[in-house]
Each structure stands twice: as C-alpha cells, then as structure tokens.
Amino acid sequence: MSRYDDIMDLQRPVSTKHTPMARIDRAAQFAPFQALSGFGATIIEEARLTSGRPELDENEKERLDRRIALLKEHLGSMPPVTLTVFTDDEKKSGGEISEKSFRVKKIDEAERTIVADDGTKVSLDDILGIDSDIFSRSPGI
Hints:
Strand order of the largest sheet: 4-3-2-1-5
CATH class of the domain at 58-135: Mainly Beta
Helix content: 10-25%
Structural class: alpha+beta
CATH topology of the domain at 58-135: SH3 type barrels
Radius of gyration: 32 Å
Number of strands: 5
Strand content: 15-25%
Distance between the termini: 98 Å
C-alpha cells in the first residue's frame, strides 16, 4: 500500500475561474532560459572580420583620375562599369572591399560621387578601381 493511494484515482482539478491554458503556451513555460540575451549576437559580431582601407599610390590615383575623365567623355552612352569599392563598416573599424556593376548616369564633381542609372551613388574617395569596355579602346588607361 502506497501513501498516495487515496489520491491516485482522483480527477485532475479544473478551475471554475480560469480557462485552461493552450498547450503551446504551457510548453513555452519550459523553454530554455537565456540569462545573457544578446550575448550570442555580440560574439558573432566580434568574430566578424573587417579589413583596413587600402592606400593607393600616386600611379594608381593618376590612373583612376584618367579613367574618370574618360568616363565623363562617354556619359551620353551611359557606359557600363565595374567599380572596386571600399565600404566602411558601420559597427566597427575597417570595412570591406566589394565590386559594384552598373551603368554610369552622372559624375557629380560637387558631391564627388558617381551616380548609377538606378540612382545609387558611390563616393569617388571610396573607389579603388574602375573597369569598363571603354578603357580597352584607349591605350594607357
């Protein structure tokens, strides 16, 4: 004989004041507790690598200037270009190097930007390289 025999066969009590909790809500009570919320995201962010901004030498800067001048001459045809661009990281020091391809609509010297046909603007100061078919027709560019 067990000391709980007197209650073993009783029905589970049902409250007359409260409706039963949904199973999904009951299960949520037993979900794992994360004492340091956001800690995992912080670790991932710290592990993300960025690179420093590359410095162009005088020859590379002159080459970019010649290519931008040639682009200005061909703006009427909206030449397609591929830019190698350095983008500063918003959360930590450094950034990343990426390529952007589009058709050039305008070169805004006042804002020092190249404007794409879709309205995207790229700062001339962030450009590390410019490639286009129009450069293959001009020797030394």
